[in-house]
Amino acid sequence: MQMRQMMKAIGFKKHLPIDEEESLIEFETFKPVAKGHDLLVKVKAVSVNPVDVGVRKSGHGTLREPKIIGWDAVGIVESVGENVSLFKKGELVFYAGSFKRSGSNSEYQLVDERIVGHAPQKLTTAQAAAMPLTSLTAWEALFEQLEINPNDKKNNNEKTILIINGAGGVGSIATQLASWAGLKVIASASRPETIEWVTKLGADKVVNHRLDLVHEVRKLGYEYVDYILELNDLDGHWNEMAELIKPSGKIASITENKRPVNLRKLTKKRATFAWEWMYTKSFYQTPDMITQHEILDKISSLLDQEIIKTTLNKAFTPINDLNLKEAHKIVESNHMIGKVVVSDE
Ligand SMILES: NC(=O)c1ccc[n+]([C@@H]2O[C@H](COP(=O)([O-])OP(=O)(O)OC[C@H]3O[C@@H](n4cnc5c(N)ncnc54)[C@H](OP(=O)(O)O)[C@@H]3O)[C@@H](O)[C@H]2O)c1
């Protein structure tokens, strides 16, 4: 009988503050085997998202086995399952992965080929690792949930979108994609660094989300906006959005409310409100799950053509518990600009 191979991984058994030694620990576990639609990927670079912090922190007690988190990776396909048709061994891929499965903070990871893209050729692995989760979120929110057609530039030129939190991970790619689609982009940012960052990414106007957004937007000469993409604090911005949305306009949010959302505020305007959750397709194994493969391939091509650029802003090397802790600390601050990545090269 063949001995099962081992691999290194990083995870947690206790939900501890990041400064505590055991908040993230290195350990050894079995190297998984690819079956069905799965790719086994040798991970080269990962990014840290607010979801990593949320899952690490929430919960009580001690887990029996360490939990491996991490939702963003770039790596090389090491082997493929018997049903795989989109990729072959040796290819460089990037993906965000599934909420239900073991994460990317490990030497090797299994991922379903239908949610994986070919990594951009012209970027470093760190630059590419910044992109998958936030790009999928921004793409699905803009072009699926807000139903903006990215190819109808002429129509989009007439339309305005307010992106609340333009400089964070998702906002940094959403601003670029909305601008590429031809929309007039009003992005929110509250500090000189974030204002400069969103302007470089293509925002036409910048408003301050620490001030009254209704006043901020109206000061620019807009009574209403056609679309709103909410990327930080739905509760805090709900009333402003209800006031600013144009009659028949559309709002999408990626953040959870902590108190009931008063949808009644949208009734007279017959405005649409839609959620975006990047994991929905893989979580429920929806028939259109493969669209995440298509979106990532499209993002890869836009990056290689330099139509959009990486949102990488901070990088640590190599992948280990200490560097992942540093990355978690930055994301926890809620002042992230672009993305933070931990990579082996
Ligand atoms: N549903 C999904 O599929 C999905 C996917 C990805 C992320 N998310 C969630 O979406 C949120 C954003 O993710 P992210 O990765 O873009 O976050 P991030 O990079 O951590 O966002 C940091 C940015 O938030 C801005 N900010 C802080 N407070 C704000 C406020 N009250 N209003 C507006 N902006 C504020 C900060 O700007 P200033 O410093 O200039 O104030 C900072 O640049 C997180 O809650 C995350 O969990 C959901």
UniProtKB/TrEMBL annotation:
Alphabetized Pfam families for the sequence: ADH_N, ADH_zinc_N
InterPro entries, sorted: ADH-like_C, ADH-like_N, ADH_Zn_typ-1, ER, GroES-like_sf, NAD(P)-bd_dom_sf, Zinc-ADH_QOR/CCCR
Span of domain Enoyl reductase (ER): 23-342
Molecular-function GO term, any one: zinc ion binding
Keywords recorded for this protein, A-Z: Metal-binding, NADP, Oxidoreductase, Zinc
Matching SMART domains: PKS_ER (SM00829)
NCBIfam families referenced in this protein's UniProt entry, alphabetically: adh_fam_1 (TIGR02817)
Similarity-based family: Belongs to the zinc-containing alcohol dehydrogenase family. Quinone oxidoreductase subfamily.
Protein name listed in UniProt: Zinc-type alcohol dehydrogenase-like protein
Organism, scientific name: Liquorilactobacillus mali KCTC 3596 = DSM 20444
